[in-house]
């Protein structure tokens, strides 16, 4: 009689090192983004900075007159 | 649900075409962005902003969605799955983030193009508009990271993938044990 097949080995789940490094880099980038938002105000990033939002460039006078 | 080898090749060809096309389109866009950032000539600025808007709306955004869609098809229709391997999951997250940022940025580009299209806008007003260079450079870096992840497919299973793999192994083991007299 043949031996029954061995039960598959169960190795514990581990997170690879490259994923951890990737996570750290992503966290740093997000942190930098938040710092930019905080230091420049809500208009410091995104489309609102171009449309006269807080801290943004003022609209050109003729564009304002055209109601853009 | 796994695709047949023929269908998988078609899907892979489509995914490669639109994904690499996305990077190429962003590179072309970046050339215009650099012109908008460095030129003092009103005509160059006007032309650059108008071309940037057409390129973003008609080429880059469709390619981004096509890349996302074909990527989803490739991962669901192959052994890789969508949430089983870290490289697939991270590629998906980065593609979604890049697409969302692109959509937001397209509004800014549209705003620039509206101003540039107005013949009464002066050169000084055009020069004060600014650029989207930080976003296009950042976007290119993100797309290259996704490209490298997809080429090298670094090892590593998510907790979900690990659990699924063990369930599969256990089932195979049980089937083999049942066959042994």
Broad shape of chain A: rod-shaped
| Total of helices of chain B | 6
How much helical structure, as a percent, in the residues of chain B?
over 70%
Q: What's the tally of helices of chain A?
A: 2
Report Rg of chain A.
27 Å
Number of strands of chain A: 0
Helix-and-strand structural type of chain B: mainly alpha
Uncertain runs of chain B are none
The rough form of chain B would be described as elongated
Largest β sheet strand count, sense and barrel closure of chain B: none
Overall mean pLDDT score of chain A?
68
**CA distance, first residue to last residue of chain B:** 33 Å
How does this structure look, described?
The complex is a heterodimer of chains A (68) and B (181). Chain A is mainly alpha-helical. Chain A has two helices and no strands. Chain A has a domain at 17-58. Chain A is rod-shaped and about 50 Å long. Residues 52-58 and 61-68 of chain A have low confidence and may be disordered. Chain B contains six helices and no strands. The mean pLDDT of chain B is 93. Chain B has one domain (5-179). Chains A and B meet through helix 1 and helix 2 of A and helix 3 and helix 6 of B.
Can you describe this structure in just a few lines?
The complex is a heterodimer of chains A (68) and B (181). Chain A is mainly alpha-helical and 68 residues long.
